[in-house]
Amino acid sequence: MPTLSPEELVAHALLARTHAYTPYSHYQVGAALLVADGSVVYGCNVENAAYPSTICAERVALTAAIAQGKYQGQDDYVALAVATRDGGTPCGTCRQVMAELGPRMVVYICDEQGNYRTTSVAALLPDSFDASSLADDQAS
Ligand code: THU
Fold first, then answer.
1. How many angstroms separate the Cα of 99 from the Cα of each of 21, 96, 119, 126, 131?
2. Closest atom of ligand 1 to CA, residue 24
3. What pTM was estimated for this model as a whole?
4. Protein residue with its CA nearest to atom 14 in ligand 1
5. Pairing relation of β-strands 30-35 and 77-83?
6. Ligand 1 center from residue 57 Cα (angstroms)
7. In which region does residue 54 sit, left (phi positive, over 0), alpha (psi from -120 to 50) or beta (all else)?
8. Tens digits of residue pLDDT in 91-140
């Protein structure tokens, strides 16, 4: 069960956003991932002079939690808040990673004032490609 309110998780995402490294786009993104153990893992976008080497805030949080030993399965990821200046939504690559690692997460998308809307991974990425297509009995 979530141990934080949506507003508290959004506040964490806003704080994470202040850590963004964005010398090129100046578009700061923060992410705060609520994990089943009650902890919150931060992510922010980290840009690079070789632009495609940039990594998004959402994927930083989703992968950092694994590195911190907080991921045993899909239900360990409870909620993800994403903060941008204008309530911009996660990119397609991040949606795919969200579907892989936390398909049942609640997602809060907020602007820099903390105004947020609530959505889901399924709503963000319907009919997603997943591991079921790779099952051995499907191989040909
Ligand atoms: N960005 C994210 O961090 N998350 C997204 O889902 C969309 C885009 C970042 C990448 C880049 O640093 C900046 O926003 C502009 O694209």
1. 25, 5, 13, 9, 10
2. 12
3. 0.95
4. 27
5. antiparallel
6. 7
7. beta
8. 999 999 999 999 999 999 999 999 999 999 999 999 999 999 998 765 55
